[in-house]
Design brief:
By secondary structure, this protein is of the alpha+beta class. A five-stranded mixed beta sheet has the order 1-5-4-3-2.
């Protein structure tokens, strides 16, 4: 993976509480984002290449892409069922 994934405690708790299939789908999407964050995500508002949205069938995540530090930080994670 080119980028390292970082979670806050709140986002990690949401991910841990998700059903197994939803969690696996989110994990796969996050892994794809770590390999190519721009291709695997959508802009969040204005396309600045920094704040991005990752959407799966069961979750929406807001990500901060740190190009210099090579990190992706999950700022917010919502389970939508």
């Amino acid at each position: 993976m080119l980028f390292r994934l970082k979670y806050g405690a709140d986002a990690e708790a949401v991910h841990d509480a998700m059903p197994l299939d939803a969690s696996a789908q989110l994990s796969s999407a996050l892994a794809a984002a770590c390999n190519d964050p721009i291709e695997a995500t959508e802009p969040y508002g204005e396309d600045d290449g920094i704040v991005r949205t990752l959407t799966t069938d069961h979750a929406i995540a807001v990500l901060l892409v740190g190009e210099i530090t090579k990190t992706i930080t999950v700022l917010q994670l919502s389970f939508v069922g």
